[in-house]
Amino acid sequence: MRNPGRSIRSKLNAILVVTTVTALLLAAVALFLLDLRRELADTQEDLVTQADVIALASAAALAFGDRKVAQENLATLRAKSGVTAAALYDENGKLFATFQPDDAVGEVPARAAAPGVRVRGDWAVAWRPVLSNQERVGTVYVQLRHERLAQALASVAGLVAIMGGSLLGALLLSNRLQRSVTRPILAVAEVARKILIGEAGGLRAPKTTQDEVGDLVDAFNAMLDELDRRARTLEAANAALRLSEARYQLAVRGSSAGLWDWDLPAGTMFYSPRFKALLGYGDVDFPDKPESIDRVLHPDDRAAVRTALRAHLRERQPYQVECRLRDANGRWRWFFVAGAALWDAQGRPYRMAGSVIEVTERKQAEHELQESSRAKDEFIATLAHELRNPLAPIRTGLDILKRDTGNGPVSQRARATMERQLQHMIRLVDDLLDISRISSGKIRLDVSRIHLRSVVDSALEISRPALSAAGHAFEADLPDDDIELMGDPTRLSQALGNLLNNAAKYTPPGGRVALRVRREGDQAVLRVEDNGEGIPPGMLDRVFSLFAQVRSTLDRAQGGLGIGLYLVRSLVTMHGGSVVAESAGPGQGSAFTVRLPCLPAQPAAPKHDAPAKAEWPDEGLKVLVVDDNVDAAETLALVLEMEGCRTRLVHDGLGAIPAAQEFAPDVVLLDIGLPGINGYEVAARLRADARFADTVLVAITGWGSEQDRRRAGEAGFDHHQTKPVDLEVLRPLLRRGRGVPPGA
Ligand code: ADP
Predict the structure, then answer these.
(1) Which residue, by CA, sits nearest to atom 3 of ligand 1?
(2) Which residues form the Histidine kinase domain (predicted)?
């Protein structure tokens, strides 16, 4: 609230009062003094005139000593008001005649004094010489009480009263006038105050006069209108800005991108906190300067970044570049950098901003994709090579068999080679199928309690041909007490067989291969050692990856597909075990150690006997072979007949049923993909016929997945065999069909 003593009005009043009072006082005092002086001069003059008249009139009376006349002359002063005493003195100064009016307030001095006029207070006295013929004959004295001072004071008082009155009037008038000026100003001030404290936004000052103050109020109100309009515009702009800022912040928060903003003339670069966080830097080690990014940019990517930047700034092409940036841990990571510049009217770029997004994973995926595409191409080439490789000796073998009809030693060698090559091809295809089962998670272990020795025997059966073909010396170091474990014997011998095959394959002819088996606590340890070409240290773990090979497979004769060790590790891991490779380096040989969990040692484990060579079933076993591949069917029938079986061939599904009814086979080897009705359907129909209740139905098919096996079982098959049929595998099945238990 405004202090009333400080208001303009009170100040104006104070000024008015002070100046007016001062002026009036000065004027009154000056007037009073002037008047008093004139009055006194008049009084003196009057007094002197009176005295001179008395002197003139009384000169003769004094000269002649006529007191009476002198007294009468003095008495004329009675007519003169204010004269309180008068006297005449002779030439010696002695009192001659006196005059004192009735009130007798005056005094008459006893002796004459020197001529002159004296004024003291209200009193004035005049001493005048009385001359007669130029000679002084005496002195006249007149005393006057003039009251000029009182009169002057009275008139001053009147003046002061008038002045006071008029001052008061002026004060009132001026107050009124001032109020007509200050009231609208105060109203303006009050409105301004209320608007300032936000009490009334739309309030306006009232216009009460049409004068300059009215103009001021109008201007003030117009200014408020304009301010209101601008405030509304500003508010709308602010709201839009807030919305856009919120949207921007949300986008920035929600985005995985880091942002940068480069002020080209100022040479400063803003990096968003997310940008720095992406790389793991802080404000100190990554200041907002263009050099910061230069410092972490991979030297090999600098040229690409600069070229893209120049192309954008000069030709205004989109700025998009991928580059490596070093993070706070010193790791190079890939980023996609994009941005756009702003150009001024002269076409000079003055600002550029954009984002960075990490693309390391995509880059790695791209790299892996390229690698896998390359590996796939290589794999297909190798596969073709690997499949064709065994075909050459088989074809040559066939030629030999054709010519050497006498079944001499050449034919026998050719047959052994062909068998080995065929085994190799079968294993290859089996491995490939297993890979696909492993990668689709469909491989199942047929786990039972098994003897490790039987696994070793099966594995040796698989790999012995390769070991002896290469002329390697093979040593098997097996524990006396057999080790028992829970596992799938087929899969474990497949894994061990792969390791032994590799040892044979990657050891120059005439080398040494050893298999050492021992128990270490609750683990069975199988170690396959060779003195072959060895493995470089960097490859020791990588050789277990799919398609991984130490050397490019096409440049060597003993190539594989790079899937054997992958299978080994997958199968061993599925058994809860592990496998590692060791090698002192190229040319230093290798060792592969498999560890498998095993069962506690049995105190008196019976000595392992090698399974007796399975015998062929009794002669005269009737086998119906159903296969639309005439060659495959005939060769199979040929082999079976050579072994003493009686056979009948059918090449389609529908023909199989009447053939079976007529032939009454003990065993039906039935292909699945058949013209007419498929193998499942044939099996189902046979099973529906009570005459074939004891007939062994064996599915012979190229499809070996779990699903295929299950479907075969559902259709009524007893067994499921993938092509080509291995007679060794077939043999026990045939025996079982005759009511003989397996392994008997
Ligand atoms: P493949 O033998 O079909 O190439 P593997 O997965 O069995 O595939 O083996 C992968 C690679 O590991 C082989 O190409 C070979 O370079 C290397 N390797 C495997 N076993 C041995 C071994 N005993 N001695 C030397 N190198 C081996």
Answers:
(1) 560
(2) 382-600
Spatial contact of 534 and 589, defined as CB atoms under 8 Å apart: yes
* Ligand 1 atom index nearest CA of 589: 24
Single residue among 563, 597, 631 that ends a domain in this structure: 597
Residues with beta carbon inside 6 Å of ligand 1? 502-503, 506, 530, 532-535, 543, 548-551, 560-566, 590
CA 564/CA 233 separation, integer angstroms: 77
Distance, in Å, from the CA atom of 456 to the CA atom of 238, rounded to the nearest integer, reads 83
pTM: 0.46
Ligand 1 pocket, mutate which of 379, 528, 543, 567 (most atoms under 8 A from CB): 543
Q: How far is the CA of 505 from the centre of ligand 1 (A)?
A: 8
pLDDT tier for residue 163 given thresholds of 50, 70 and 90: confident
The CATH number of the domain holding residue 693 is 3.40.50.2300
Question: How many whole angstroms from 558 Cα to the centroid of ligand 1?
Answer: 10
Mutate which of 506, 527, 569 for ligand 1 pocket (most atoms within 8 A of beta carbon): 506
pLDDT tens digits, one per residue of 384-430: 877 877 787 788 788 888 887 777 777 888 888 888 788 878 878 88
Q: Residue 89: what are its φ and ψ, rounded to 5°?
A: -125, 145
Atom of ligand 1 nearest to the CA of 528: 23
Q: Are 715 and 598 in contact (CB under 8 A)?
A: no
Residue 714, domain extent: 622-736
Name the residue with tokens 């023909």: 655
